[in-house]
Amino acid sequence: MKKISILIPTYNEEKSLPLLYPELKKLMDEQKQYEWEILFVNDGSCDSSLNIIKALRAADDRINFISLSRNFGKETAMLAGFDYVTGDCMVIMDADLQDPPSLITQMLEYWEQGYDDVYAKRANRGKESWLRKRFSLLFYKILETTTRFEVLQNVGDFRLLDRCCINALKQIRESERYTKGMFCWIGYNKKEIVFNRGDRIAGESNWNFKSLFNLAIEGITSFTTAPLRFASVIGFFIAFFSFIAAIFYFFKTVFFGDVARGFTTLIVVVLFLGGIQLICIGILGEYIGRIFNETKRRPPYLIREYNDELIK
Ligand code: UDP
Ligand code: MG
C-alpha cells in the first residue's frame, strides 16, 4: 500500500489546529486505499500548539510530530519535515486551512498518473496592499530574467512531491533557504492545479512586510549572482561617461580657461558616485554575508522532541 505523508509546519496555531484536523481526518478516512501520515513540525510555538498536537497523536496514531528547539522559520521547519517524512509522496500544507485539503484528492490523481511535483497555483492573491503587489511583481521579474530555470508566480508551498523530489530537496542543506526557488530548481515532472486561496480561518499571519522583503532578498541572493554583474555594468558605464566628461573639461579649460567655477558639477558627480559605490558595496555585502553563514556549517535546525521522545 502506498503511503502519503502530509507535512504541516506549525507555529502558534492553537486556534487553527482543532479546525484543521477534522478536515484531514475526513480526507484520510475517504481515501482508505492509502496509508497516511500527518507530520507536524512544531516550529518553537509559544502557545499550546504542541500540547494540541500531542493530544491529537494520542487519539490517532497516523499523526507524528517533531518539535524544534526554537522558532527557526517556516523554510527551515520544512527542511526538518523533508528529513522526517516517511511516505512515498508528501503534501506540504499550511496549518491555517488557506490550502484546501479537498485539493489533495486531485493532486493524488495526478501523482498516480506519473507526475512528480503537483503544485497548486493561486488564481487570486487575496487581500493585499497595492505596494505589496508591486514589490512581489518586481521580485518575480528580477528572478525570472536572471535565473536559468523557470520561476513560477503565485505558487506557494502547497504541493505534492514524489519521493524522488523529497530526496532531491533533502540534499539541499544551505542554511539560508528559499524553498520556493528550490522546488523550481530541482526540476522533475511538474503539473499545475489552479485554486482560489481563502483567508486564514483563525490566528494571524506570521509574515509582515519586513519578513517578506527579507525573503525576497533571500530568494534573489540565493538563486542568482546577477546583482553582482549589475554592479560591474553600472561601474563600467559610469567610468565610460566620466572619461568622456574628463576629455570635455580638459579641452574646455585649455581653450576657455575656466578654473574656479564648476563647483556644482563637482559636487553632483561626487555624490552620485558615492551613492553608486554604497549600493555596490551593499550588494557585495549581501553575498559575503551568505558566504559567511554557509561556511559556519551549522546544522540548519535542532530537534527537541520526536513523537513524545526527548532527543538528547
Ligand atoms: N510557520 C512556521 N514557522 C514560522 C512562521 C510560520 O512554521 O516561523 C507556519 C505557520 O504555522 C503556517 C505556515 O507556516 O502553517 C504559513 O504561515 P502563515 O499562514 O503565517 O503565512 P501566510 O499564509 O500568510 O503566507
Ligand atoms: Mg497562512
Description of the molecule:
With 312 residues, the chain is of the alpha/beta class. It folds into two domains: 3-133 and 152-207 and 298-310, Spore Coat Polysaccharide Biosynthesis Protein SpsA, Chain A, CATH 3.90.550; 226-295. Helix content is 51%, strand content 17%. It contains ten helices and nine strands. It has helices at 17-30, 49-59, 74-84, 103-112, 130-146, 163-170, 179-186, 209-223, 226-256, 263-295; strands at residues 3-10, 35-42, 63-68, 89-92, 117-122, 155-162, 190-195, 303-306, 309-310. It has a nine-stranded mixed beta sheet, sandwiched between helices. Strand 2, helix 2 and strand 3 (63-68) form a beta-alpha-beta unit. The protein is elongated. The two termini are 34 Å apart. The model has no long low-confidence stretch (mean pLDDT 85). Bound molecules: uridine-5'-diphosphate and magnesium ion. Magnesium ion (MG) binds at residues 94, 96, 98, 200, 205.
Assign a percent range to the helix content: 40-55%
| CATH architecture annotation name of the largest domain | Alpha-Beta Complex
| Widest sheet, order of strands | 7-5-6-4-1-2-3-8-9
How many DSSP E strands? Answer: 9
N-to-C SSE string, H for helix and E for strand: EHEHEHEHEHEHHEHHHEE
**What number of structural domains do the residues give?**
2
Q: Helical stretch count?
A: 10
Provide the CATH superfamily of the largest domain. Spore Coat Polysaccharide Biosynthesis Protein SpsA, Chain A
- Helix/strand structural class: alpha/beta
Query: Bound compounds, please?
Result: uridine-5'-diphosphate, magnesium ion
| CATH topological fold name of the largest domain | Spore Coat Polysaccharide Biosynthesis Protein SpsA, Chain A
Average pLDDT, to the nearest integer? Answer: 85
Beta content? 15-25%
